[in-house]
Design goal:
It is a single chain. Helix content is 39%, strand content 19%. With 552 residues, it is of the alpha+beta class. The chain folds into five domains: 2-70; 93-181, Pdz3 Domain; 187-324 and 336-393, 2-enoyl-CoA Hydratase, Chain A, domain 1; 399-451 and 489-526, no CATH class; 454-486. The strands form six sheets. A six-stranded mixed sheet has the order 10-11-12-15-16-21, with helices on both faces. Strands 1, 13, 14, 17 and 18 form a five-stranded antiparallel sheet that branches. The termini are far apart.
Length: 552
């Protein structure tokens, strides 16, 4: 009987799914009973007669996941073993050392110690190779496996053995794990004399308080305009989306409403508190990875004409999830409703299972969209994300830049530079000289960073097609001539894309000195969306016109 204790999990889920499937109660309960009987009989037969021994946990989990995947991507089964990871995602808290780890150049390394937490206080640095955790050799372990070794109950001790650049002997450090709370606002600061910048990366507990605190701090520093960065923000707690919106929107205003099958769960969420500022001009940065709660905030700001949205269309996730307890300490995260922003539109992508490779929504025909109005009468549409008022597409990096970053050469050189230079100017001001860039070019001379451009791939495809269709001999000379014209030259590309590569290098180097702060401050001069936001905030007539007319 032990092998079948997990049958209660699919039974619960099938009952939930089947309960609403039929109008006639007798028909519904017959179908439930029939399908549960089929499932139990099938599982028993597979367990008894399949050629190899099966793992009941894995098989049931596969069945559950396949069933839920047929509904939507956000309805998930969370077994007991994954509960802690789920809590980390929803609360931003875990017990550990406070560091991002990853693999570079075939080695497990510290990529970013969080300032003020055990890893940083113990002196761990970016680029330290992790050799052992509590005397467990981690050379061949995955990043996930090492992460599990580093996590644990707060106030418990662990030892970590590292290999540091330029130091021959391994270094062993003792750390005490702490309760790590990941900030929703990892950075805020002044871009120039009168424009402040706030980055919101998550919507876990206290997101609203953190944004309010950042805004108040920036205003004291002289901020008269704000760039609010929601790019890459995957969302989180719905009540925190309301709290963040409330920072900029008046008390009592509707922020979002939810509507689902269980009508008694339908609810309208309003701003409950006094706002921090309802007048300061705002430019909200969004992209195709701004989702869920990030779309509630950006949508509410757009619907009330409170600020200008800059960037790309958002992800298009207008579904609300709730967690339901299951047996054996497991849980079901289930979509219970769709949410609607103040204009009345739902930003849920009409077909969320078909997306572009970057996760963004594909083209949606106008015939499938409905028009809505903002407070000032601007026309906005539903059907798949929030469209920005100013559309800005970031430039694609050159193939050589992608190659240098992906092969770890930018990281390796920044590590070398850090250990050869005691200090650098502040991240906002740090620039590599032409001589230093040439040193990087010389350092690359014996490194492998070959790459193929899109044009070269197209020519190679043309050559293959010509051969298969028997035209090759007739056009061989033309193909060879075209190939000779576009064949990349690595040394030439290092000069042609010098500014782009230097920017990547400067950010990577500055991280060693200023940690996460450098990621943001180094981007202020080069980020096309930030530049566009600065431009519109500095042009008050244009800013005002955008809030009373169609997007640009």
């Amino acid at each position: 009987m032990k092998k079948f204790k997990f049958l209660s999990l699919p039974i619960v889920l099938v009952v939930i799914a089947g309960f609403f499937s039929f109008n006639n109660p007798d028909e519904r309960y017959f179908e439930i009973t029939k399908n549960l009987d089929i499932f139990a009989t099938l599982f028993k037969e597979v367990n008894a007669f399949y050629v190899d021994e099966i793992n009941p946990n894995d098989l049931i989990k596969t069945g559950i996941n396949a069933m839920l995947a047929s509904l939507d991507p956000y309805t998930n089964y969370i077994p007991e073993d994954d509960i802690e990871d789920y809590r980390t995602i929803t609360t931003g808290q875990y017990g550990g050392i406070g560091a991002v780890i990853g693999r570079r150049s075939g080695k497990n390394m510290i990529l970013m110690p969080y300032e003020g937490f055990p890893a940083h206080k113990a002196g761990l640095k970016i680029g330290d190779e992790i050799l052992k955790v509590d005397n467990v050799d981690v050379k061949d372990k995955t990043t996930s496996e090492i992460s599990q070794l580093l996590k644990g109950q707060a106030n418990t001790k662990l030892t970590i053995t590292i290999k540091r650049y330029g130091v021959e002997e391994p270094i062993t450090l003792e750390l005490t794990r702490e309760k790590i709370t990941i900030d929703n606002v990892p950075y805020f600061g002044m871009i120039n004399d009168d424009i402040g910048y706030i980055k919101l990366s998550d919507f876990t507990t206290n997101a609203g308080k953190e944004v309010k605190k950042a805004l108040e701090h920036l205003k004291k520093e002289g901020a008269q305009k704000i760039i609010f960065d929601l790019r890459g923000n995957p969302g989180g707690l719905l009540n925190e989306a309301v709290n963040v919106s409330n920072v900029f929107l008046n008390q009592g205003l509707e922020i979002v409403s939810t509507k689902g099958k269980v009508t008694e769960w339908n609810k309208t969420y309003r701003a409950l508190n006094q706002p921090a500022d309802t007048e300061i001009p705002i430019a909200v940065l969004v992209n195709g990875r701004s989702a869920s709660a990030a779309e509630i905030v950006s949508g509410a700001i757009q619907d009330y004409d409170r600020g200008v949205l800059v960037g790309q269309r958002t992800f298009g996730k207008g579904l609300v999830q709730a967690t339901r307890p299951l047996t054996f300490n497991s849980q079901l995260k289930i979509t219970t409703a769709k949410y609607y922003i103040p204009s009345g539109r739902c930003i849920q992508a009409i077909n969320y299972s078909h997306r572009n490779p970057d996760g963004s929504v594909g083209v949606i025909p106008d015939s499938l969209k409905s028009a809505f109005k903002t407070k000032n009468g601007r026309t906005v549409y539903d059907g798949g994300g929030i469209n920005p008022d100013i559309e800005i597409k970031p430039p694609m990096p050159a193939p050589i830049t992608i190659s240098l970053v992906s092969k770890g050469l930018v990281f390796d050189y920044s590590l070398k530079y850090y250990h050869e230079h005691e200090t650098i100017p502040p991240a906002k001001e740090f620039k590599l000289s032409d001589e230093e860039y040439q040193d990087f070019v010389n350092w690359l001379s014996d490194k492998d960073y070959d790459y193929t451009t899109k044009v070269e791939k197209t020519i190679e495809s043309l050559r293959k097609s010509a051969k298969s269709e028997k035209f090759y001999e007739k056009i061989k000379e033309e193909i060879d001539h075209l190939e000779s014209q576009v064949m990349h030259n690595k040394k030439q590309d290092l000069m042609e894309f010098k500014d782009e590569i230097k920017s990547m290098l400067e950010q990577s180097i500055a991280e060693h000195y200023y940690l996460m702060k450098a990621d943001f401050e180094c981007s202020f001069d080069d980020d096309v969306q930030i530049k566009a936001a600065i431009d519109v905030l500095n042009d008050q007539p244009r800013y005002s016109a955008l809030l009373t007319s169609a997007k640009e």
